[in-house]
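Protocol step 4 of 5: obtain the predicted structure for the target chain.
Materials: sequence only (see below). No template structures provided, no constraints applied. The aim of this step is simply to have a reference model before the mutagenesis design in step 5. Sequence pasted as it appears in the construct record:
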Amino acid sequence: MITTLHIKNIGIIEDITIDLGQGLNVLTGETGAGKTLIIDSLQIISGGRFSKEMIRKGETQSFVELCMYEPENENAIDGNIIVSREINVNGKNMCKINGRMVTVNELKEFMRRFIEIHGQNDNQNLLDAKMHLNYLDGFIGEKISNPKRKYENLYTEYCDIKQELKNNFGDEKEKQRKLDLLQYQIKEIEQANLKIGEEEELEEKRKIILNSEKITENLQEADSLISENGIDSISMAIRALEKIENIDTQYEKLSSELKNIYYELQEVARDVNNCKSDMEFDEEERDFIEERLDLIYSLKRKYGNTIEEILKYKDNIKEEVEHIENLEEYNNKLKKKQNDIEEQMKLLANQMHETRKQKAEILNEKINQELEELEMKNAKINVKINYLENEYLRTGKDIVTFYITTNKGEEEKELSKIASGGEMSRTMLAIKKVLADTDKMPVLVFDEIDTGISGKAANSVAGKLKRIANNHQVMCISHLPNIAAMADYNYFISKDIYQDRTKTQVKLLQENEVIEEIARISSGEINDISLKYANELRHKKAS
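Step 4 output (structure tokens):
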């Protein structure tokens, strides 16, 4: 239930706080005092749309905050959940749940479990066709909950097997597609005949080819200098030293060392000459190296960053091919189990379908009886059940949709197509009255519920609101004394002018003030007759 609602800077609301109670909370007051703005604020905190024109004139932001007491909810802290939404003139939103920032969609999904607003807007679960099956099943109760629980367990197992078969390529087309792909990859890698270290070797050759002209030129220059200058000069130096090597041992030593240098230089000259010979490349060899490197680069893009990784990938997919080819027996067992489960699901789904069909008729009768009591004698609810022949849902094979005809001769249409806010609210009231014992929604808000009704219908609406409030916290804006008299908590909404600005005020009425407010809205003035009538209405609530 909502314990506190705080609204700031929305329309003529400057800053108000409303402490709400369990049961029926009724808001009455002057026209244009801000009652609808309070409902709008509940729409906003429930993730509804917001126009920046709603921000109070002269202010830069609006703020709505509420505290809910939900001790059994996992999000509650000491039983409380605090939700807030701040909206700035620049359009920026800041939504929080217990201090944690969330998106508007997250806020909407969270709040739809706690508050349902019935009026001109569509922020309510009863208008969501996806929720209709839950409402019907809630009405049916234990008769469907047991088979539904068994079915859901089977459905979970069915989906798990279906996913495992998909992962195991239990589908023959998918399996063959995967095998074809893997075998193509194996063939592509094997045909490349890759060798570890090959890429580095080819890169080195490619580098030499690209620089062959420069290398040849410099090898030629080195060869010329060694042959023409180096070797001949050293040879002449050796002959000169040989002429004096007998004079002293040191000259003999120098001559020996120089001869060693001479022999080494001859080796170097031969190596340089050999390198010159090796620099002869033909175009075929150049093209082969380029094509080979392109192939390696292509395979690296597909299968790994190195030749080692590519070869490892090939080994892995060979194992995968072997694994897939050996899955057939296991997959056949899974398929048999899946078929057995599907048979069980079909039996339970058909059982639930028959139960839903029977109980939908009863639900129709009960809701239509409520509509008649609400002076909507020509309105008829029709809970339609569409059976899906070739599909299984988590809840069976049924799609449930609430349809309504509001006037004789008109074509029935989905519940969400009701145009009148008053019709919408009373239709929702009728449905909620029938579903009150099974519906788990904590807070129900009714706006425009008394539009165009009086007398017997007004009494009926008031009585139904009161009975619904036994199981839910109900908040209702009303202009009818019948409804105000049934309230557990009455709030008077007024407006006042302060420093040339209009602002909304809210007051929780004491019992004597409640009698006076009932008298005021029943006749437009407070006198002995209206007070007597107010006391009589209030006495009906007590009885």
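Step 4 remarks: The chain has 16 helices and 15 strands. The mean pLDDT is 86.
Proceed to step 5.
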